[in-house]
Fold these 3 entries.
Entry 1:
Amino acid sequence: MQQKKDRMNDEVGPIQFGSGNGFSLPVLGQDTPTTPESPDPIAAGSRDAASSEVLAFQKSVEGKSGKQYWRSIDEWAGTPEFEAYVKREYPSQVEVIVDPFSRRRFLQLMGASLALAGFSSCAYQPKEELLPYVRQPEEIVAGKPLYFATAMPMSGGAAPLLVRSNEGRPTKIEGNPEHPATLGGTDIFSQASILGLYDPERSQAVTYTGEIHSWSSFIGEIRVALGVEKSNGGQGLRILTEPVISPTLGKQIMDLLKLYPNATWYQYESAASDGAFQAAQEVFGEPVRPIYHFEKADRILSLDADFLASHPKNLRYIKDYTKKRNPEAGNTPNRLYAVETTATATGGNSDHRIPMKPSEVEMFARGVAAAIGVGAAAEVPEAFSLMIEEVAKDLKAHRGSSLVIAGDEQPAAVHALAYAMNGALGNAGSTVVFTKPLEVNPVAQLNGLRELVADMQQRKVTTLIILGGNPVYAAPADLNFAGALESVQLRIYHGLYNDETSSYCHWHVPEAHYLETWSDTRAYDGTISIVQPLIAPLYQGKSKHEVLAAIIDQSDHTSYEIVRAYWKSQGALNTEASWRQAVHDGFLKESALPAGGLTAKQTSGLLTNVTPQQQPASNTFEVNFRLDPTIHDGQFANNGWLQELPKTMTKLTWDNAAFFSPRDARNLRLENSMGSSGGDFEVDVVELELAGRKIKAPAWILPGQPDGVVTLHLGYGRTRAGHVGTATGFNANLIRNTGTPWNATGLIVRSTAERYVMAQTQTHHSMEGWNLVHETTFDEYREHPDYIHEEEPPTPRDLSLFPNWPYNGYAWGLAIDLNSCVGCSACTVACQSENNIPVVGKEQVMMSREMHWIRIDRYFTGSGDNPNGSVFQPVPCMHCENAPCEVVCPVGATVHSAEGTNDMVYNRCVGTRYCSNNCPYKVRRFNFLLFNDWTSASLKLLRNPEVTVRSRGIMEKCTYCIQRIQNAKIESEKENRLVRDGEIVTACQSACPADAITFGNINDPNSKVAKLKASKRNYSLLDDLNTRPRTTYLSVLRNPNPALKPTKTENA
Amino acid sequence: MSQIFHHSTNTLARVTIFGTLFIIVGALFAIAEFNRSNYITHAFVAREQPVQFSHKHHVGDVGLDCRYCHTSVEKAASAGIPPTRVCMNCHSQIWKDSPYLEPVRASFRTGKPIRWTKVHDLPDFVYFNHSIHVSKGVGCSTCHGRVDQMPLMMQVSPLQMEWCLDCHRNPEKVLRPKSEIFNMAWTVPSDQAERGKRLAKEYNIQSKAVLESCSTCHR
């Protein structure tokens, strides 16, 4: 082992940096050893006034340090804090077991309770009751779950789902594999929405100025108010919704507007992409939107489009993009050039990451366009000229199979340029098609919102009905939406939570969760998807359809009747049979919005007129606002699963931050100091001023962040989100402007004396000192397919003193293709849902006590100042055949099964934690406290009855979803056959939109997993330890442009 | 100096020294046996139920098949407790005015379930599945005893892990032909050792190593 480590150190030489744009790939240098252990006079002083980290950067810039794959800046720089941290498994438990107690007192109590606990086994079990149905519903067999198709509405495209129902309560979200928009993948939002359904803090009753009223009194009052409005055609009536995709809801609003012809309907959400809307209006003359066909795209240029982020609209893109890069599937790999203005999953997974300031994206796009022959010749910064030339050359060489994508946050000009480039490259109709928008009535949302606020300020609005969204929180600060709202006489808010907006409204009607009501929606490709309820409303929730029906005097209509009546009037679903089929499938077949018939004007003003750039004052920053990767625009702020889910690139939990590039942080002398627990980072708080408005934000140093750019995530800083979401992070909307909603210049950054502690997981469970990630290029792989094992011969199987155990029956195994994993974390949330994994809270995350059974390790590659990209590595239990955890358990609570799974027997575990101390993969999780909520009634409905709910003092870890294995085995045994390949799908595998995870029987040579494990790309983590993991990985392959590639890129 | 201790103390000392060992072993044995006793396991204790339902009458006298009420025993983990409607299939016609059956009729009237007391209550970390046992040749009476002779339902097996493992290690000794699964009166034939082996092969019973694995029952 030691020998191995030394060899590695010898080979990993200094990293050579590219010419400053960060698209170089790591190379092997001279045989200079790395210097983590070598004494460094600068870093040795550690935590003095000048932090070790700042100095570590300086050291790094001198090119002396740097690992090739690293998860945090401390790891990369090899700071003493980090070295000390990785030596311990649970770094902080000694000091803080339970705050008010001393360690000795704790041990006394522990000893006493252990002794007493011994007697508990002699006690009677409590009396339990059996409550059968009175009249059993036809399809229900107690203990057998049913699955129902539904869809989760989201802007940009719904998530088509199959939801598991255990005796009538929805317990788990799965993707709908037959739905053309996703082919079965899911995203973190839909996976976590099941927790939203059971959230005990959802609003539960109709209220008027905070007092509980009945639905009927609401209807009575609103009738009176609207009667007055009707007399003048609804001149003072305004309706504010989120963008409406549901055809039925659209029809209802149109009906309402017919009744009140002078009323106005506005739509707004934080994610509004007005740039794309304007560009479409300009170039096509009507609102259209592009749909991409990644399965046909060989060369892709992303202009700050994060199309690999976890969102229902991206699921098909993720699938097609990653499939194209799968060497086993036999496709020619695509090549992705990713322009990005902050570190994103798309940039991390790209072949060439091109970080730049938001203001430079348009110039870059014009440069590429000019080189392709679109638009006017453009002046481009010297730094990008080589890249622009090569990208344009590469795109031109793949006419009809290339693709240019503009990000939603980009201004109209960039969208127009992307449309024009695709047209000139012959991609229109092939890799990109244009369809009508999903929305019933697409609008420029911010213009509308501005108009509404102006009307409210001029007291033209007498009744405002807000259906969904949370505009008081989410409206940009310059509008002063809340202030204007107060001048409206009657304000009605329909929403899921009693939130910021409801506190400004007279009436608040609780919204029914999408799992509680009928509705309809469209997926990203326009496929009509039926929203089917799985459960009657838990509280007094009403759907949007019911509220609108009440407004237009149809209050006795149920959601089902409204939706059904609408579709009866439509051709495709007018028969009962076709409707039932659509409800059963979850969607209407072949209902995607038709493509084509739309041609882009090539002569738009957007193409030729360069947007004038304000010359920002020197020493100001550019700022870009982005939706939060896990809590989105704030609508999921009260969802503990999403709050605690480490964010794709930063691995922060429970907070947002202002992201600074390492170089900027050095200049501003900002520090992120790692605490003793590994999860707590003390960071500097900065004051950010944009256009006269100021907020304070913790400054997080993010490798991959372009210099001169500060990124702020929306969605945090909620004041009335609920116990989980309130007072987490800061509200970036408070400096957001309607003029520059996504990217702005002139941000002034001032340092403050304040410090703030953040919880992040990037250094947790660190497996230090090994070759954990293998990465090479497609070309190298073709030439040397066996490159991993030539480098590191696999450990012989007879190394153990004990004879090998023969696995004669099934031998379960898992293969994870790192080349497909985009780091979206849907697997982590799916696992949390399937296995009843608790949320622990920010303080516990800071102590490395998060409970996720599958974590996503995010490795940056290359230099700390400008990483080349990232590798995402999901790490569940390895289910080692020679498991180190098993031999050290004094009570036999973790033992091996005859089929090779490493079983965890909760009822035997006494919590010594020896197993996790001996686990080299750091995959075991310990319930230090009673993390599971055993008391909230609604949360009891959430639990998967097939998995034990763990209590305090119990070790737990990934079981390969043993409940799914056992159930599939029982079904096969009853039919006297073997389990078919693909019959057992683990929760993580089922959730993965990229098909990166494959489970199966490795004893069956024809199984998918056995074939993957036979691939030359297959390798085990820490193979030298002879643990023989059943979970193995397939290496990452990149497809860099040879013209931009410095030299050989093997990573050793 | 005179002897402090009497002669007999030698014997006492010997008995004490050697006896301690026996006392400790004996005490441990007593605790273990107590833990296995019916007092702890609740075996042979008839539970009070909201309706004095007699399996003896319905199975033994009337001759109902187990699956008339326990419909999911071949399909799911749980054998299934019959919904009130199943009771009312007959009792809307016979004994329809019996005061004993008032809770049943009340349940049917009000739509509120009858609250039965659970008799066979495994710990929550055990995931027992009826369907696989029934389809692999383990009969009802093997675990539940002569239900057809029980006026009030009671447990006859200890339902402790050693009892489960006893069969999982030697399934041959209880396997019966599939035609006899629901036969209450089936007794173990004298040549069970040989028949069991044959049946185990025929039913494709999993290897002992698999049946003994923790995750077979614990998740």
Note: Confidence is low (pLDDT under 50) at residues 1-66, 92-98, 1047-1052 of chain A.
Entry 2:
Amino acid sequence: MNARARSIARERLQGAGLDFALPYLLLAPAVLIALAILLYPLWDGVRASLFFYRYGKPVRAVGLDNYLRLWTDDQFINSLWVTVRFVALSVAIETVLGLALAVFCVREFRGIRFFRTVLIVPMVVTPVVVAIVFRLIYASDAGMITVLSEALGGQPIEILGEPTRAFLALVALDVWEWTPLLFLILLAGLQSLPVEPLEAARVDGAGPWRTFVDHTLPMLRPVLAVAIVLRTIDAFGTFDQIFVLTRGGPGEATRLLSIFGYDTAFKFQETGYAAALFVTMGLLVLALALAAVRLLRRIEAAR
Amino acid sequence: MTDRSPLQRPLSRRKLLQASAGVALATALGGATSTARAAGGKVIIGAFADGGLTPFKEKIIPLAKEQLGLDVTFLEDDYGVMLEKFFTDAQNKAGQYDIDLLDDPWVPQFGAADVLEDLGAAGIDGTNSDWIGPLIDMGYWPPRQGPRVKGFETAPPKLVTVPFVGDLQTLTYRNDVYTGGAPATWDELIAKGKEGVKAGKIKYPVVFRGVTGNPIVTSWYPVFLSFGGDFFDDKWKVIFNSPAGKASADFFVGAMKQNAPPGVVEFDSDQEGAAILGGDAGAIIQYSGNAIKSDDPTQTKVAGKLDFGVVPKQVKAIAQLGIFIAGVPKSAPNKANAIAFLKWYVSAATQAKLAEAGSIPVTRSGFAVKDPGNRLIPVALKQLDAGALPRPRMPDWAKVEEILGIQLNKALQAGSGGGAALDVAAGQVTDYLKQAGYY
């Protein structure tokens, strides 16, 4: 085939839509892989949630029974409530602390870079390791807090054996580990804010507090909202630390949905019921994320 | 004369045949060699980490290499995750393990899912009179005796697992506190323990595991059985909240908690082990994992002061059987080796070696060795004679245990209300079993 013939053939192919199809053909492998690893498990999970499983195998289709059973199951309701409380409290504290640290660290002074680096260290430690270390702190027989209490003439302090204290201890662990994430995002947000409005406010005689409340915070709101949404979604899936530290106890005081779902799926082999639980959990988080996005849009529109 | 290089020479048919035969022979030899390697011996054993397996790891694995030529790979992980690992491996036919060392209550779950080899059909004789009866009974699914779950009422029992370490609960006590020997009753255990506290010999009369789920139920179990409790009737109706059961739960969350270390609600085996081996506690009901450390001065501060006995009684002295039990997944990659290993392991000669190594054997002849490696072994036999029961043979025991564990743990936190906790648990267990098709 000479050059002229090749050129004619190419033109015909282009005429037949090669130019149009080529980008899609090139994207196809990546799309297929994404479908295989994202959509297939999702579809399989939804399908499993519509079956009654026995001994790890589907026995019969039950429609939405697994979903309905969730709302009559005291253990699920309890786990949902514990999860909501855990997420709300942890994220609230992390946001306040993260913001305070970001405001402090946005200024440049000697040693600030080292300080910023140290602040993000907890975030990069493996969650299981964090949990083991905190167990060594909390344990009532030989934990650091008990040792300290006894050294000061006090009694051993029960933390993981008392429901409220165990719950708060988990929140404290989460705050220690994940405040750096909020700090990092909010610091980046603060550093990207325009300085002119803040300087104008200062020239007009506004003090640091008024400048922060009236100017910095409103401008930071979109970043703040994104940070909170990200952290909230992540906090819903908290598992490792609880698995190592309390396994959901004492009683059911720290039994988050992730732990309840894990037990249901793997310990009790109720695959269909566990799938319904995780689909429901996914929908709840999705609803939360969508609500946050709408809120963000409203904030943007108001600006 | 033109000399061609070998590659340029034409290939005759004879040479082609010679070359083909050579390749075939080499392939056959290579195949034979690799087959011989596989048969030569590799067995992958999975287990949850437990001190009760230490003698096996230290003495029997090397013996298997010596006598069978088998290379044993021993993989262990935390108790809480091994059930999931084993079941997922067996169900998905992943072929990660050749032998699963299960906790005995898991056998019904695996048996019902039909993921384990029939070891009886593979040549292991479950009717051999050398077996300890209650131990080999646990290897069958469906059970040879007692109630059966729906779907398995008429199925012939198969030997899907064989007992591996004959572990059971016994009492470990301080001989300088209980100077007259093992306390015979729970009341005596508490009363003499208090005297020991007053004398400054110990800090607490008793220690146990209070963590929710399996640990607290395991600690309560011998109290429950010795008070005369039972879990289910022949139709799987819940009866654990009988007056005897409630009395045992009240005693457990009341008197026993009051005489245990503060923080016992969060205690698991590491903390209870530390309390008895560290010299703080006067008595403990435990499995062999920590008990066999009692004479080792590197593991305990009170070596020579710890003795073993049968569990105390209220109306009877019954302990919980909790044996390691071995199954071969249908997907085991070295199945023949695994079965050969188990046949060798349960032989009288190897069981004798196991007992000499300090582990509790699973056959009568194992208990008869002249020089058992641990003084716990004869006491274990005494406990077997006095009474030891397995957990109910049902595939859903894990869920039942979870429900019971949560309610008992809540009552333990409160320090009262054990009986009421059993009532709540009974309702939840009944609801669960109903939806699972038991009734």
Note: Residues 74-105 of chain A form the longest helix (32 residues).
Entry 3:
Amino acid sequence: MIRFADHLMIVPIVLPLFAGAMMLALGGERRRDVNAALNVATTFALVAVSISLLQVADAKPTGLAGVYRLGDWPAPFAIVLVVDRLAAVMLLLTSVLALAALIFSLARWHRVGVLFHPLFQFLLMGINGAFLTGDLFNLFVFFEVLLAASYGLVLHGSGLPRVTAGLQYIVINLAASLLFLIGVSLIYGIAGTLNMADLAERIPRLRAEDRGILEAGAGILGIAFLVKAGMWPLCFWLPGTYAAAPPPVASIFAMLTKVGVYIVLRLSLLLFGDSAGASAHFGSEWLLLGGLATVAFGTIGSLAAQDMARLAAFSVLVSSGTVLAAVGMGQVAVIGAALFYLVSSTLGLGAFFLLVELVERGREPGADVLAVTRELYGEENELKDPQEVGIAIPATMGVLGVAFIGCAAIISGLPPLSGFLAKFALLTAALNTAPGAISAPGWAFLLILVLSGLAALIALTRAGIRAFWASPDRAVPRVRLIEIGPVLVLLLLCAIQTVQAGPIMRYMRATAESLHAPQDHIRGVLGATAMRFGPPAGGS
Amino acid sequence: MEVVLALGIGVLTGSGVWLVLRPRTFQVIIGMSLLSYAVNVFIIAMGRVRVGAPPILAARSAGDPAQFADPLPQALVLTAIVISFATTALFLVVLLASRGLTGTDHVDGREPEQ
């Protein structure tokens, strides 16, 4: 039977759900302070829960912290939640980033629209559920939960640019969800199961004539995730939406692309790993090519970007393209390094989205939108608000400038912060894939990664000069401690990741190894007692 | 039966894709609805087309899969219908907001220059 501690696995889904529902029950918008307090407490609890899940997962030799059978039905029939090293690290990253974005939003952004706090919790529920689930259809449901919440958050604060960008964001995601359903039902029609571990076991034994339909289904499913991850040429919706979204929301959206990347990584190694028979490594060359193209597109876009929010959005593309290309290369060492890169770049980008708003605050367009929305919701000018929390810190521009340099170093991959270590590890792994000669994908990866780092540096330097040096008549933005604090904490986490690179790299390496040898995972999920009946595969 | 079903899915998908690619938001929302119908029927078809077979066990037929239709795709379709209904309603609200803010029903929020 399940021990009490095992219920920790479902907490990352149930806790935000209850918190969100509680906020609505407690009066929604009329009690915003209560909502905010509940939101902070819940998100903080999520950080604690994910840290303990991560420790449990790391302590197990198989890396599988546990399998939670909802309703205690045997695995292939019931819905399961699976916590392994990868899921645990993604949970932790989500909750840390969410906490930073949330605290930032408390200064002013949560007041520019309605129901920010419940939507935020539902978004976390969807993201956590997508990381935890071991079942394809359940994944669809959690995807819809996170998308529905993200539609609300993109439109948070309303205004013309957000509604226009939000409209296109909703259409593209609805279309992707339909592709998701088509892929899932094709796979079910052929393999007769939706449990990921069960699928992984059945795929090698499929008949040759069924393989085409299975691969078509997997390909369509992959398209749905790659739209979310922003792979070129499915990414044109992303820069506009991310630049138009409110900054705390954009910051947590940096994690949303990683949800797509996570699913691609998980499914491609679990279903189409070395043991998948004739379907082994299905689609990996497309991931590699698409990833490299995404990095190239993001690089060109960030050089062409006129304002910093768009620059940040294009950097998101570079980050997810790099990880996708690494997944396409498929070696253990490359994927370990890619996970390290994923953590570092997501933290850096999250900090950058928050920072951009602070830096651009002195400029007209952002101020315009804020003023309009404040008028709309009847808020008086809150800078004169006597109940102001936090203090206006001195030497604002200095602190902002240092934070900007930190973000730039992480995003472009320069020493001394973790971005450099991540890129260094990626390149070392990519160049050492085969003994002797360096493979062609290795060279392409090296070239694109170095060039994109250089371009990011140029773009960020230019934006920095424009923002900090070349505008003498601008007012110094008034920044509160609870706004700059989260940015600095995220950068500090990157610094810790640099100092503790050894243990973290070991963890990522172990994660990549268990992803490449999914037998323990499959055995753990299906369990020794799992009931089996009927022909194992191939038509029903 | 299969031919009718396949033709139906094909016609719905074709019209849906064409409408989604149109520039007016109302056409897009109708297109999305048609596409979601097509996908729902497709999910049912993936559970194999059976006519007149119940998706739940009848008395004394337990353990014989030949007696009943696959219930799982039907459960999936129920979920998919609920979700697509909700998202369509949400999309409708955004469509109206966009129409109100921009004064046009073009998906880009402005009329293309002639």
Note: The radius of gyration of chain A is 23 Å.
